[in-house]
Write a structure and sequence with these properties.
Blueprint lengths: L3 E3 L6 E3 L12 H12 L11 H12 L1
Length: 63
Amino acid sequence: MTVIVQCPTCKKPVEYSEKSPYRPFCCKRCRLIDLGAWASEERSIPGDPTFDDVLSEDLTHKN
């Protein structure tokens, strides 16, 4: 059975199998666009602040 998904970036259909090395993305370009969005914090997973977040805020407010 072949599973077809939409590329999260461009919405093209992608066969979700070993034939598609960048799955669920259609190509390397779409995968890198998504990675860039995470790296620039355009995307995030909601949750409680971590220790690093709290420490960063403390250091920012002291300067």
